[in-house]
Amino acid sequence: MKKIVIALDGHSSCGKSTTAKQVAAELGYAYIDTGAMYRAVTLYFLDHHVSLTNPKEIKDALNNIEITFHYNPKTQRNETYLNGLNVEDEIRKMYISNQVSEVSVVPEVRRAMVAQQQKMGRRRGVVMDGRDIGTAVFPDAEVKIFMTADVDTRARRRQQELLVKNQLVNLDEIRENLQKRDHIDSTRAESPLRRAEDADLLDTSHMTIDEQVEFVMHKVASKLLEQKYSVEQD
Ligand code: DC
Predict the structure, then answer these.
(1) How far apart are the CA of 15 and the centre of ligand 1, in A?
(2) Fewest 10 Å CB contacts: which of 22, 35, 104, 183?
């Protein structure tokens, strides 16, 4: 069966990555967390004091950055590597969340990440989550979902995720971070966060993860059936 691209875009912390991971596992597809790539770039820029107003520093830094994902059987998840170093835990910390949207606005950063993401999905068979997958990275994705949830629900879920990693963060701080990121992500000039015209809307405020996965899998099944019939008719 022909493999497809599944694009899951939407606001921060509305369950995109958990849903995307499960959908990828059910289909035997690769899962690509594009937010992790912007987070890894942010970590590198902070560590190397790259100035966001110096194009030469940005270009040099981007030439020195290699981001890869490797499966860790112990944690049973794909983990993010920056220049060969496992940075999975570091990039999820609040100080990265507080800077990542500013770094993601930089056009050179976006171009470099979009090119890498297109390369990763060139053979299709991928589930990608992010902000601009259905609009800029794979505008021809066969399944596009735009996910959202009310901000209080998202803040509570994010707080739980951090707590599991032994990071106790105040709910107001998390809510403020989410609102700030939503604003920067949606208003930036280059590939802003927006719902593609042909994306299905999924509000997860009152949904369980299983229900979210089921929603996406239903869309995937319809698309695969549609393709099967159009091939048979050709
Ligand atoms: O999905 P996340 O919260 O880990 O993403 C972190 C940030 O990365 C998000 O605030 C905006 C940016 N991002 C982006 O600009 N484009 C993407 N495709 C994915 C993430």
Answers:
(1) 13
(2) 183
The string of DSSP letters for 3-32 reads --EEEEEESTTSSHHHHHHHHHHHHT-EEE
Q: How far is the CA of 218 from the centre of ligand 1 (A)?
A: 26
- Of the candidates 147, 142, 116, the residue with the CA atom closest to the CA atom of residue 12: 147
pLDDT in tens, 189-204: 988 999 999 999 999 9
**If you measure from the C-alpha of residue 131 to the centroid of ligand 1, how many angstroms do you get, rounded to a whole number?**
6
Cα(128)–Cα(231) distance, integer angstroms: 25
Q: Does 5-222 carry CATH code 1.20.1270.10?
A: no
Mutate to test the pocket of ligand 1, among 177, 185, 191 (most ligand atoms within 8 A of CB): 185
Instruction: Please tell me what DSSP assigns to residue 137.
Output: I
Residue whose CA lies nearest to ligand 1 atom number 13? 35
Summarised one tens digit per residue, pLDDT across range 89-136 is 999 999 999 999 999 999 999 999 999 999 999 999 999 999 999 999
The pLDDT, as a whole number, for residue 132 is: 96
The secondary structure of residue 135, as a DSSP letter, is I
Number of alpha carbons in the 13 Å side-chain half-sphere of residue 116: 21
Q: Is the pTM of this model over 0.85?
A: yes
* Cα 224 from Cα 202, distance rounded (Å): 20
For ligand 1, whether the C-beta of 117 sits within 6 Å is no
Q: Does the beta carbon of 130 lie inside 6 Å of ligand 1?
A: yes
Q: What is the per-residue pLDDT across 24-38, written as a single tens digit (0 to 9) for each?
A: 999 999 999 999 999
